[in-house]
Amino acid sequence: MKLLKQFLIIILVSFIGEILKEVIPFPVPASIYGMIIMFACLGTGIIKAEQVSGAGDFLVEIMPVMFIPAAAGLMDSWGILKPVLLPVSVITVVSTIIVMVVSGIVTQFVLKHQK
Question: Which residues contact 38 (CB under 8 A, 6 or more apart)?
Fold first, then answer.
């Protein structure tokens, strides 16, 4: 019952994100709205971490399984992706490196200013 309540909280926040996507005319995915709402609720204490930790842990554990449909879709689209494979690969590697560097710099900045 406890796990069901935790999933319901997460689903409710996701549903609010879906509503915001329809109401707000920005090209932002509903999942981003949901994550922002969940972050705000956790940060302000409206939702306590203990109220969603069990369901969150479960979702993180099964996350690799969630990538199987996307990988199957990529394999099915190989004919379309083959001509642009090199540019997409370069963009993916470069953007990943940029995200890692920026994340490291921001983390160091936050840690230095917390002291």
Answer: 10, 13, 47, 52
SS3 103: helix
pLDDT tens-place string over residues 36-67: 999 999 999 999 999 999 999 999 999 999 99
- Rounded Cα distance, 45 and 9, in Å: 14
One-character DSSP codes across 34-70: HHHHHHHHHHHTSS-GGGTHHHHHHHHHTHHHHTHHH
Distance CA 30, CA 37 (A): 11
Which residues have CB under 8 Å from 79's CB, separation 6+? Answer: none
